[in-house]
Amino acid sequence: MAKLNQPTTSGRKSAQRKTGRRHPLATLALIAIGLGLTGGVYAVATSTSSASAETATASQQQIDDGQKLFEANCATCHGMNAVGTTVGPSLIGVGAAAVDFQVGTGRMPMASSGPQAQEKTPQFTQAQTDLLAAYIASLAPGPGVPAEQYTDGKGDAAAGAELFRINCAMCHNVAGAGGALTEGKYAPPLKGVTPVHIYEAMLTGPQNMPVFNDRNITPTQKADIITYLTFLEKNPSPGGFALGDLGPVAEGLFLWIFGLGSIVGLAVWITAKSN
Protein backbone atom coordinates (compact mmCIF):
# COMPACT_ATOMS: atom_id res chain seq x y z
CA MET A 1 0.00 0.00 0.00
CA ALA A 2 2.88 2.36 0.77
CA LYS A 3 4.23 1.89 -2.73
CA LEU A 4 0.83 2.68 -4.27
CA ASN A 5 0.74 6.09 -2.53
CA GLN A 6 4.12 7.18 -3.89
CA PRO A 7 3.94 9.39 -7.03
CA THR A 8 5.43 7.84 -10.12
CA THR A 9 8.25 9.38 -12.17
CA SER A 10 5.94 10.20 -15.11
CA GLY A 11 3.53 11.94 -12.69
CA ARG A 12 6.32 14.16 -11.33
CA LYS A 13 7.37 15.17 -14.86
CA SER A 14 3.77 15.99 -15.81
CA ALA A 15 3.37 18.19 -12.72
CA GLN A 16 6.61 20.00 -13.54
CA ARG A 17 5.41 20.66 -17.08
CA LYS A 18 2.11 22.08 -15.82
CA THR A 19 3.74 24.41 -13.31
CA GLY A 20 6.35 25.59 -15.88
CA ARG A 21 3.88 26.37 -18.68
CA ARG A 22 3.57 30.10 -19.61
CA HIS A 23 0.27 31.90 -19.41
CA PRO A 24 -1.50 32.26 -22.80
CA LEU A 25 -1.35 36.09 -22.49
CA ALA A 26 2.38 36.16 -21.73
CA THR A 27 3.30 36.51 -25.42
CA LEU A 28 0.92 39.44 -25.85
CA ALA A 29 2.35 41.06 -22.74
CA LEU A 30 5.90 40.72 -24.06
CA ILE A 31 4.88 42.24 -27.41
CA ALA A 32 3.17 45.15 -25.65
CA ILE A 33 6.25 45.79 -23.49
CA GLY A 34 8.50 45.66 -26.56
CA LEU A 35 6.34 48.11 -28.47
CA GLY A 36 6.21 50.43 -25.48
CA LEU A 37 9.99 50.43 -25.11
CA THR A 38 10.48 50.99 -28.85
CA GLY A 39 8.07 53.93 -28.83
CA GLY A 40 9.77 55.43 -25.80
CA VAL A 41 13.24 55.18 -27.35
CA TYR A 42 11.93 56.70 -30.60
CA ALA A 43 10.30 59.59 -28.76
CA VAL A 44 13.51 60.34 -26.85
CA ALA A 45 15.59 60.17 -30.03
CA THR A 46 13.20 62.46 -31.89
CA SER A 47 13.13 65.04 -29.14
CA THR A 48 16.91 64.93 -28.89
CA SER A 49 17.43 65.42 -32.62
CA SER A 50 15.17 68.48 -32.71
CA ALA A 51 16.29 69.94 -29.39
CA SER A 52 18.85 72.14 -31.16
CA ALA A 53 16.07 74.22 -32.72
CA GLU A 54 13.80 74.71 -29.76
CA THR A 55 13.22 78.00 -28.02
CA ALA A 56 11.87 78.81 -24.62
CA THR A 57 8.12 78.45 -24.25
CA ALA A 58 6.38 81.73 -24.94
CA SER A 59 4.09 83.27 -22.36
CA GLN A 60 0.36 83.50 -22.95
CA GLN A 61 0.67 87.29 -23.18
CA GLN A 62 3.19 86.96 -26.02
CA ILE A 63 0.92 84.51 -27.83
CA ASP A 64 -2.07 86.83 -27.45
CA ASP A 65 -0.08 89.83 -28.71
CA GLY A 66 1.17 87.76 -31.63
CA GLN A 67 -2.37 86.72 -32.48
CA LYS A 68 -3.45 90.37 -32.62
CA LEU A 69 -0.58 91.18 -34.97
CA PHE A 70 -1.43 88.18 -37.11
CA GLU A 71 -5.13 89.03 -37.39
CA ALA A 72 -4.31 92.62 -38.33
CA ASN A 73 -1.60 91.88 -40.90
CA CYS A 74 -1.62 88.25 -42.04
CA ALA A 75 -5.14 86.83 -41.73
CA THR A 76 -6.27 88.26 -45.08
CA CYS A 77 -4.17 85.68 -46.91
CA HIS A 78 -3.61 82.97 -44.29
CA GLY A 79 -7.06 82.97 -42.64
CA MET A 80 -8.16 84.04 -39.18
CA ASN A 81 -6.93 80.80 -37.61
CA ALA A 82 -3.89 80.44 -39.91
CA VAL A 83 -5.56 77.53 -41.70
CA GLY A 84 -4.94 79.07 -45.12
CA THR A 85 -7.10 80.49 -47.90
CA THR A 86 -7.17 80.32 -51.68
CA VAL A 87 -4.39 82.94 -51.81
CA GLY A 88 -2.23 81.82 -48.88
CA PRO A 89 -1.11 78.47 -47.46
CA SER A 90 -1.90 77.09 -44.02
CA LEU A 91 0.62 77.94 -41.32
CA ILE A 92 -0.35 75.12 -38.98
CA GLY A 93 2.81 73.27 -38.03
CA VAL A 94 5.32 75.51 -39.84
CA GLY A 95 6.84 76.50 -36.51
CA ALA A 96 8.58 79.62 -35.26
CA ALA A 97 11.57 79.10 -37.59
CA ALA A 98 9.48 79.57 -40.74
CA VAL A 99 7.89 82.75 -39.38
CA ASP A 100 11.21 84.20 -38.27
CA PHE A 101 12.71 83.53 -41.72
CA GLN A 102 9.83 84.75 -43.87
CA VAL A 103 9.01 87.84 -41.81
CA GLY A 104 12.58 88.56 -40.72
CA THR A 105 13.84 88.70 -44.32
CA GLY A 106 10.92 90.84 -45.48
CA ARG A 107 9.53 88.15 -47.78
CA MET A 108 6.30 88.31 -45.83
CA PRO A 109 4.00 90.12 -46.16
CA MET A 110 4.42 89.87 -49.95
CA ALA A 111 4.40 93.13 -51.86
CA SER A 112 2.80 91.48 -54.89
CA SER A 113 2.12 88.03 -56.24
CA GLY A 114 4.81 86.41 -58.37
CA PRO A 115 6.85 83.25 -58.92
CA GLN A 116 8.34 83.65 -55.44
CA ALA A 117 8.46 86.12 -52.57
CA GLN A 118 11.13 88.78 -52.93
CA GLU A 119 13.51 89.65 -50.10
CA LYS A 120 13.02 93.24 -48.96
CA THR A 121 13.29 95.48 -45.92
CA PRO A 122 11.32 93.84 -43.07
CA GLN A 123 8.04 95.54 -42.16
CA PHE A 124 8.12 94.27 -38.58
CA THR A 125 10.67 94.73 -35.85
CA GLN A 126 12.41 91.67 -34.43
CA ALA A 127 10.27 91.93 -31.30
CA GLN A 128 7.09 91.87 -33.39
CA THR A 129 8.45 88.98 -35.46
CA ASP A 130 9.06 87.05 -32.25
CA LEU A 131 5.45 87.63 -31.19
CA LEU A 132 4.13 86.37 -34.54
CA ALA A 133 6.41 83.34 -34.27
CA ALA A 134 5.19 82.63 -30.73
CA TYR A 135 1.56 82.68 -31.89
CA ILE A 136 2.13 80.37 -34.87
CA ALA A 137 4.24 78.00 -32.74
CA SER A 138 1.39 77.78 -30.22
CA LEU A 139 -1.00 76.40 -32.87
CA ALA A 140 0.93 73.19 -33.53
CA PRO A 141 4.44 71.76 -33.03
CA GLY A 142 7.02 72.86 -35.60
CA PRO A 143 10.69 73.77 -36.04
CA GLY A 144 11.90 76.42 -33.63
CA VAL A 145 14.47 79.19 -33.94
CA PRO A 146 17.96 77.61 -33.71
CA ALA A 147 20.17 77.91 -30.66
CA GLU A 148 23.10 80.33 -30.86
CA GLN A 149 25.66 77.54 -30.67
CA TYR A 150 24.69 76.46 -34.19
CA THR A 151 24.84 79.92 -35.76
CA ASP A 152 28.00 81.42 -34.25
CA GLY A 153 30.20 80.40 -37.20
CA LYS A 154 32.57 78.31 -35.09
CA GLY A 155 32.07 74.98 -36.82
CA ASP A 156 34.25 73.06 -39.28
CA ALA A 157 34.54 75.15 -42.47
CA ALA A 158 36.13 72.32 -44.50
CA ALA A 159 33.34 69.87 -43.62
CA GLY A 160 30.79 72.60 -44.30
CA ALA A 161 32.28 73.26 -47.74
CA GLU A 162 31.91 69.60 -48.68
CA LEU A 163 28.33 69.48 -47.41
CA PHE A 164 27.49 72.69 -49.26
CA ARG A 165 28.92 71.40 -52.56
CA ILE A 166 26.91 68.17 -52.26
CA ASN A 167 23.57 69.61 -51.12
CA CYS A 168 23.41 73.30 -52.06
CA ALA A 169 25.85 74.31 -54.82
CA MET A 170 23.69 73.07 -57.71
CA CYS A 171 21.25 75.92 -57.00
CA HIS A 172 23.16 78.50 -54.97
CA ASN A 173 26.51 78.19 -56.79
CA VAL A 174 29.58 76.80 -55.05
CA ALA A 175 30.45 80.30 -53.79
CA GLY A 176 26.89 81.04 -52.64
CA ALA A 177 26.32 83.59 -55.42
CA GLY A 178 22.87 82.22 -56.28
CA GLY A 179 21.49 81.12 -59.62
CA ALA A 180 18.48 81.03 -61.93
CA LEU A 181 15.83 78.30 -61.73
CA THR A 182 12.83 77.56 -63.94
CA GLU A 183 9.63 79.58 -64.47
CA GLY A 184 11.11 82.87 -63.26
CA LYS A 185 12.28 81.44 -59.95
CA TYR A 186 15.81 81.67 -58.58
CA ALA A 187 18.08 80.61 -55.75
CA PRO A 188 19.08 83.83 -53.96
CA PRO A 189 22.69 84.75 -53.18
CA LEU A 190 23.75 83.88 -49.65
CA LYS A 191 26.16 86.72 -49.00
CA GLY A 192 24.78 89.14 -46.44
CA VAL A 193 22.23 86.63 -45.13
CA THR A 194 22.35 86.22 -41.35
CA PRO A 195 23.42 82.79 -40.02
CA VAL A 196 20.08 82.38 -38.21
CA HIS A 197 18.14 82.83 -41.45
CA ILE A 198 20.44 80.41 -43.29
CA TYR A 199 19.81 77.76 -40.63
CA GLU A 200 16.06 78.41 -40.71
CA ALA A 201 16.01 78.14 -44.50
CA MET A 202 17.67 74.72 -44.34
CA LEU A 203 15.27 73.65 -41.61
CA THR A 204 12.02 74.82 -43.22
CA GLY A 205 12.66 74.77 -46.99
CA PRO A 206 11.16 78.10 -48.11
CA GLN A 207 10.11 78.77 -51.71
CA ASN A 208 11.64 76.08 -53.98
CA MET A 209 14.25 74.95 -51.48
CA PRO A 210 14.01 71.37 -50.17
CA VAL A 211 13.66 70.75 -46.44
CA PHE A 212 16.87 69.61 -44.75
CA ASN A 213 15.58 68.48 -41.38
CA ASP A 214 17.84 67.30 -38.57
CA ARG A 215 17.76 63.74 -39.92
CA ASN A 216 18.99 64.80 -43.37
CA ILE A 217 21.59 67.29 -42.17
CA THR A 218 22.26 67.31 -38.43
CA PRO A 219 22.40 70.57 -36.44
CA THR A 220 26.20 70.23 -36.23
CA GLN A 221 26.44 69.83 -40.01
CA LYS A 222 24.20 72.87 -40.51
CA ALA A 223 26.57 74.79 -38.25
CA ASP A 224 29.49 73.64 -40.44
CA ILE A 225 27.74 74.91 -43.59
CA ILE A 226 27.13 78.26 -41.91
CA THR A 227 30.80 78.39 -40.93
CA TYR A 228 31.82 77.80 -44.56
CA LEU A 229 29.53 80.58 -45.82
CA THR A 230 30.83 82.90 -43.11
CA PHE A 231 34.39 82.11 -44.21
CA LEU A 232 33.54 82.95 -47.84
CA GLU A 233 32.06 86.27 -46.82
CA LYS A 234 35.02 87.28 -44.67
CA ASN A 235 37.74 86.19 -47.11
CA PRO A 236 38.00 87.74 -50.59
CA SER A 237 38.60 85.64 -53.68
CA PRO A 238 42.23 84.41 -53.67
CA GLY A 239 42.27 84.69 -57.48
CA GLY A 240 41.60 88.41 -57.53
CA PHE A 241 38.55 89.88 -59.28
CA ALA A 242 35.74 87.37 -58.60
CA LEU A 243 33.48 88.39 -61.53
CA GLY A 244 30.42 87.92 -59.37
CA ASP A 245 31.46 84.37 -58.42
CA LEU A 246 29.42 83.11 -61.37
CA GLY A 247 31.90 80.45 -62.43
CA PRO A 248 33.63 79.53 -65.71
CA VAL A 249 30.95 81.00 -68.01
CA ALA A 250 31.51 84.53 -66.72
CA GLU A 251 35.27 84.00 -66.68
CA GLY A 252 35.29 82.68 -70.26
CA LEU A 253 33.12 85.56 -71.46
CA PHE A 254 35.47 88.03 -69.78
CA LEU A 255 38.50 86.48 -71.48
CA TRP A 256 36.72 86.32 -74.84
CA ILE A 257 35.64 89.97 -74.80
CA PHE A 258 38.54 91.68 -73.09
CA GLY A 259 41.38 89.24 -73.75
CA LEU A 260 40.66 88.56 -77.42
CA GLY A 261 39.49 92.16 -77.88
CA SER A 262 42.81 93.42 -76.53
CA ILE A 263 44.73 91.19 -78.95
CA VAL A 264 42.67 92.41 -81.91
CA GLY A 265 43.11 96.01 -80.82
CA LEU A 266 46.86 95.54 -80.46
CA ALA A 267 47.07 93.98 -83.93
CA VAL A 268 45.16 96.91 -85.46
CA TRP A 269 47.41 99.41 -83.68
CA ILE A 270 50.58 97.69 -84.89
CA THR A 271 49.29 97.61 -88.47
CA ALA A 272 48.25 101.24 -88.38
CA LYS A 273 51.66 102.21 -86.94
CA SER A 274 53.54 100.47 -89.73
CA ASN A 275 51.40 102.11 -92.42
Distance between the termini: 147 Å
Please give the CATH class of one domain.
Mainly Alpha
Mean of the pLDDT scores?
A: 82
Classified in CATH, the superfamily of one domain is Cytochrome c-like domain
Query: Which class do the helix and strand fractions yield?
Result: mainly alpha
CATH topology of one domain: Cytochrome Bc1 Complex, Chain D, domain 2
Global geometry: extended
What helical percentage do the residues reach? 40-55%
The tally of beta strands, per DSSP, is 2
Q: What is the overall number of helices?
A: 12
Main sheet? 2 strands, antiparallel
Please provide the ordered H/E string of secondary-structure elements: HHHHHHHHHEEHHH
Multimeric status of the protein: single chain
In spatial order, strands of the major sheet run 1-2
Radius of gyration: 31 Å
CATH architectural arrangement of one domain: Orthogonal Bundle
Q: Brief overview, please?
A:
It is an enzyme of class 7 (translocase). The protein is mainly alpha-helical and 275 residues long. Helix content is 55%, strand content 1%.
Can you walk me through this structure?
The protein has helices spanning 2-5, 9-20, 26-49, 60-73, 75-78, 95-104, 126-139, 157-167, 169-172, 195-204, 219-234, 248-274, and strands at residues 179-180, 186-187. The longest helix has 27 residues, at 248-274. Strand 1 (179-180) and strand 2 (186-187) form a beta hairpin. The protein contains twelve helices and two strands; from the N terminus they run αααααααααββααα. Strands 1-2 form a two-stranded antiparallel sheet. The chain is mostly helical and 275 residues long.
